[in-house]
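Quick start: read one record
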Amino acid sequence: MTRKDLQALARSRLADARALLDAGRYDGAYYLLGLAVECSLKACIAKLVKRHEFPNKKMTADSYSHDISQLVRAAGLELTLNADIAADTLFGGKWLIVKNWSIESRYISSGNLKAIALDAAINDRRHGVMRWIRQHW
């Protein structure tokens, strides 16, 4: 899977989540919103892998994670994230919502409030997490 494939998959998951939110299907929307962030961060990791270069074993192992914070570290974005959180407290609040997403949400009823909050945290045009990730993918 290429970086462009992961970017396209992230956009697709966001569109699917939007359709589910509009239909009042909040649990599925919550899961897909987080999956979109995961795919986006994996696109950032893919950007680090150079053709004909053997990848770092730890980065490779970490990139198969579903943990948002671990994916940020694997993408080499942890210092940038911390600096941007310090510079933009609204972004920092949105990041706290996003980083608490878990792949395990596919088994849990998250409810409409969590799904709406995650959507706002990810898609806010000025302070959203997807805006931040797209700067790095």
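The mean pLDDT is 93.
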